[in-house]
């Protein structure tokens, strides 16, 4: 639904106020009820054009189920050629076949990548770059996620949530910078502000309850305190706090980066990792398409949204709601230094 033009300022103010109330009260705003209500507000942004991504290439990690699958389908419906970046190629091919039934004629390719294994990320980036063969990569959505119940280490010895949600996505994006930069090169040469590639990090509203623990990012000092849900939320907090650094790093190539959280969505990950939460909230959870809506919108809408923001339901949201979760500039710098060192970024 497009927002109405010429709407009265009072109506706009009231709509934005209601949207903010939904956001701050969490339970109503994160459910399918919140999404349904927001879509009826006069301030709801317009959908992308039906063929907004025609001729464009998108990649989605964790695309075999839940939000990743819904994001891939949404991008394909807008005309994008979509690369399904998955750990299990056999499952990826099954999903590809299912998507072709729902989106006939879609251009879908399966790529293997374990985001938790930085060596495999390097291999996958090289393979994707070669497969693109000079074509652009216009949209990259990082959705792959894990929530191990016990502290688990990646092949490089990193706590798995931080490896999959932070180190792997940053490294993969950085290694594909040339393909992402080419998106801007392929845009209208007469455009004074060319629309470049877009990177979207799928984060979680759970990060609002967690502070940035730069003193113990991977539970090295306190393995006995490990909680899968807390580690997940802390890694999502790290994603959001990296936005300024990632924006600065990729801006020279006209690559924008955004984070979005989906609210509460009914996905296999929630069923498997949070069965109690799912049992309690199941009737009001969004479907996967509702959860993925903003990720698809960010990848396709014109003009391009500003880089470096956190989004939910097509609107920029604050990154912290509690004073105790607001990191200092020094903490953000420490996080970025840690990521650069442990992901092996160069330049």
From TrEMBL:
<dbReference type="InterPro" id="IPR036291">
    <property type="entry name" value="NAD(P)-bd_dom_sf"/>
</dbReference>
<dbReference type="InterPro" id="IPR052992">
    <property type="entry name" value="SDR_member_12"/>
</dbReference>
<dbReference type="Pfam" id="PF00106">
    <property type="entry name" value="adh_short"/>
</dbReference>
<protein>
    <submittedName>
        <fullName>SDR family NAD(P)-dependent oxidoreductase</fullName>
    </submittedName>
</protein>
<dbReference type="InterPro" id="IPR002347">
    <property type="entry name" value="SDR_fam"/>
</dbReference>
């Amino acid at each position: 639904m497009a927002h109405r033009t010429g709407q009265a300022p009072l109506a706009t103010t009231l709509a934005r106020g209601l949207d903010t109330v939904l956001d701050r009260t969490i339970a109503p705003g994160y459910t399918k009820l919140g999404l349904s209500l927001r879509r009826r507000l006069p301030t709801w942004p317009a959908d992308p054009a039906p063929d907004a991504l025609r001729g464009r290439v998108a990649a989605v990690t964790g695309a075999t189920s839940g939000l990743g699958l819904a994001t891939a389908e949404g991008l394909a419906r807008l005309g994008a050629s979509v690369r399904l970046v998955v750990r299990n190629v056999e499952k990826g091919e099954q999903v590809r076949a299912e998507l072709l039934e729902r989106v006939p004629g879609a251009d879908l390719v399966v790529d293997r990548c374990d985001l938790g294994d930085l060596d495999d990320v390097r291999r996958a980036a090289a393979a994707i770059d070669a497969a693109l063969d000079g074509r652009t990569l216009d949209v990259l959505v990082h959705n792959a996620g894990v929530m191990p119940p016990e502290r688990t280490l990646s092949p490089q010895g990193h706590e798995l949530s931080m490896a999959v949600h932070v180190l792997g996505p940053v490294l993969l994006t950085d290694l594909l910078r040339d393909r992402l930069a080419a998106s801007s090169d392929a845009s209208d040469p007469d455009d004074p502000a060319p629309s470049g590639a877009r990177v979207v990090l799928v984060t979680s509203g759970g990060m609002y309850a967690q502070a940035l623990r730069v003193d113990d990012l991977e539970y090295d000092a306190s393995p006995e305190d490990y909680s899968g849900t807390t580690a997940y939320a802390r890694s999502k907090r790290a994603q959001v706090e990296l936005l300024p650094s990632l924006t600065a790093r990729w801006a020279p190539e006209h690559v924008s980066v955004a984070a979005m959280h989906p609210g509460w969505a009914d996905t296999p990950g929630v069923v498997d990792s949070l069965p109690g939460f799912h049992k309690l909230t199941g009737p009001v959870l969004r479907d996967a398409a509702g959860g993925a809506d903003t990720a698809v919108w960010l990848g396709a809408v014109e003009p391009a949204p500003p880089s470096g923001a956190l989004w939910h339901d097509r609107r920029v949201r604050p990154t912290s709601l509690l004073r105790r979760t607001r990191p200092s500039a020094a903490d953000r710098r420490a996080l970025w230094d840690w990521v650069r060192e442990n992901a092996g970024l160069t330049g």
